[in-house]
Amino acid sequence: SGLALQIQCYQCEMTHDCSTPEFIVNCTVNVQDMCQKEVLVKEDGVHYRKSCASSGACLIASSGYQQFCTGKLNSVCISCCNTPLCNGPRQKKRPQPSAAITLNTPRLPVLSFNIIILLSSFLC
To answer: To the nearest whole percent, how much of the chain has pLDDT over 90?
Structure first.
């Protein structure tokens, strides 16, 4: 196809929400088609890790970490979205349905088993 798709995302590893213009990056054309946002709750506060991602890797990570997304200490939440700069700050005004699209992956028992195997190979 002649269309080259490129998305912009925020990219950083910070102890505060790094949603300012200096953290905007151009993602790799036709490869990194999503923005990823990781929110970690640690003893010294909330940590953010933001980046470009491929949809496959991001969706696997977000579903694999879903059980650890508690909002409490040591919580890890990973979200994926596919609109420009969607891993930025939360909208404080009235919610706009198109502003942040969270993709829900279907719950398939066989898939989740494969995801656990895949994740364990990444983590080891």
So the answer is: 60
Contact 36, 79 (CB under 8 A): yes
CATH code of the region 8-81: 2.10.60
Q: pTM for the complete prediction?
A: 0.69
Please state the domain extents for the chain.
8-81
28 and 2 in contact (C-beta within 8 Å)? no
Contact (Cβ atoms closer than 8 angstroms) between residue 56 and residue 111: no
Dihedrals φ, ψ of 110, to 5°? -65, -45
Q: What is the dihedral of CA 118, 37, 98, 70, to 10 degrees?
A: 80
What pLDDT, on the 0 to 100 scale, is given for residue 91? 59
Residue 36 · residue 87 · CB < 8 Å: yes
Q: What is the pLDDT of residue 115?
A: 43
Q: How confident is the model at residue 90 (pLDDT cuts 50, 70, 90)?
A: confident
